[in-house]
Amino acid sequence: MMNAVRYIEVLTRFMKRLCRVRSQSVRQGSQCFFLDDALPHTANIVKHFIAKKMVKQIEHPSFSLDLNSPDFFLFPQLKLALIGKRFEHIPDIQRNVTKLLNSIPNEDFLQTFQNMYIRSHWCIIMEGDYFEEQLSNFHKAYQGC
């Protein structure tokens, strides 16, 4: 189960890898985190940890399900690829998930962040109310354009 202490452990491993893989962006300070309102993400020790590491955090409205990109992009892809598969050991799961993540084109991630920008504007237009249905209707209406 994920809690604040465990989440800091995950962030620490992630940041070390980020320094290895994207050292220039780390030096430039161009990395940022988009955290939802899950309890481990909002715990004071996590906030202090992120502030101490001087990582920018993208602010967003509380409980903004319409803005949570992993729910719309990442998790469905992982679920679809892994559904019905059984793994004997945790390293098997890690290896398979890593392979899946590495197979997603960079352009797909870029499109996801562009969509998050559009969703943020819809959140403002809807004054914080849920807007997924309105956004779906908008896309259907303008598909032919």
Automatic annotation (TrEMBL):
One of its GO terms (molecular function) is nucleic acid binding. PANTHER family: MARINER MOS1 TRANSPOSASE-LIKE PROTEIN. The lineage of its organism: Eukaryota, Metazoa, Ecdysozoa, Arthropoda, Chelicerata. It comes from the Eukaryota. It comes from Trichonephila clavipes (Golden silk orbweaver). Signal peptide: none annotated. Transmembrane segments: none annotated. This is Transposase.
